[in-house]
Design brief:
There is one protein chain. Helices cover 19% and strands 31% of the residues. The protein is an alpha+beta fold and 197 residues long. Among the domains are: 9-103; 162-190. The strands form 4 sheets. The chain has a 4-stranded antiparallel beta sheet, covered by helices on one side. A 3-stranded antiparallel beta sheet has the order 3-2-6, covered by helices on one side. Strand 4 and strand 5 form a beta hairpin.
Length: 197
């Protein structure tokens, strides 16, 4: 396990607040290999809050927000897809709105039985039949783990230890089946007799 999947994100330099006016202009957001989508800043949205709302309304596979701390307010853009396919590229320039890459989108990288495996997420299914791997860290050496049957499903189906409730149609069918079977065995051993429940 040499690398975890990462979700791409970018942020801007800080301004005084989310409502501080910023310069108008345009920039583009590209998610992975998708076509870049232009974001226009004009007098209707020339604040970080306004730009974030414009980006979110475009439904382009990212979520935008404003992060405020002691340094001021910054626009943050986070890819909706983890892994290399969701890596963000920002192009174009708006005066005073400088973007910085916080995290580069990357696939998880691991080796199973000598076979290199890449995954866009840290939940890896289909590599080992019937097993889902939840990756939480990296290791330079081999990682050994065991697989055991999940008995919780059977236990939750019969929380009091009974698979069929004491009353109801299923219980009646089972009781009649057991009764008929006992009657049949008794008749085979002793011949036909009147047998009551």
């Amino acid at each position: 396990m040499t690398g975890l999947a990462q979700t791409s994100s970018v942020y801007t330099d800080a301004v005084a607040s989310a409502s501080t006016p910023i310069s108008t202009g345009a920039f583009s957001i590209k998610v992975g290999s998708a076509t870049a989508v232009p974001v226009t800043i004009d007098s209707s949205n020339n604040t970080l809050a306004g730009v974030a709302a414009t980006i979110n309304a475009a439904n382009i596979g990212v979520s935008a927000g404003v992060i405020t701390d002691a340094a001021g307010a910054r626009l943050s853009i986070l890819s909706s897809s983890s892994g290399a396919a969701g890596d963000l590229t920002i192009s174009g320039a708006v005066t005073g709105l400088n973007f910085h890459k916080a995290v580069t989108g990357a696939d998880a990288s691991l080796t199973v039985d000598g076979i290199p495996i890449d995954s866009a997420t840290n939940t890896v299914a289909g590599v080992i039949p019937g097993v889902t791997l939840n990756l939480t860290g990296t290791s330079s050496g081999a990682v050994t783990f065991g697989v055991a049957a999940d008995t919780t499903q059977a236990a939750s189906a019969a929380p009091d230890g009974r698979f069929i409730a004491g009353d109801g149609p299923a219980a009646d069918v089972l009781r009649n089946f057991v009764f008929d079977d006992r009657k049949r065995r008794h008749e085979l051993a002793l011949g036909p007799r009147h047998f009551s429940q």
